[in-house]
Structures are given as structure tokens and as C-alpha cells.
Amino acid sequence: MNQLSPNSTMSTEPVFLDHLLMNIGRKIKVVTINEKLEGILTGVAIDHIQLTIDHLNYHIRFQHITYFVGKP
């Protein structure tokens, strides 16, 4: 019997990810498909970022981010 394992694909944007990584620990503005958020970029993962706003951690998936404003 064959065992099934989860399989997912995700498009990556290496330059976008690199620019985010250069802003870890800095205040950035993130524009999503729904709203604009401003906070400290406290984490970058393969599929989302962590933005800390007023001691709350927001985990925002890359596919929801339109663009961000930070210092390269």
C-alpha cells in the first residue's frame, strides 16, 4: 500500500525575501490586500512574516502582502 504524504508548492521571490531580511528589527509599513500595517519586523519565514505591533505578533502570509516600505 502506498503512503500518501502532504505535498504543497509555493512560489518564492528571493529578492523580496532578501529585502525583508535586511529589515529585521526595524519599523516597516506593510500593505496587504486588506489594510496597511506598521510595526517592527520581528521574523521572516519561508511563507510569512511576523510584524509586532503594540506587543502583539501578527503573522502575515506572503500571498497577502502587496508591498512593504522599509530601509534597504
Automatic annotation (TrEMBL):
It comes from Cytobacillus gottheilii. This is DUF2642 domain-containing protein. InterPro entries: DUF2642 (IPR020139).
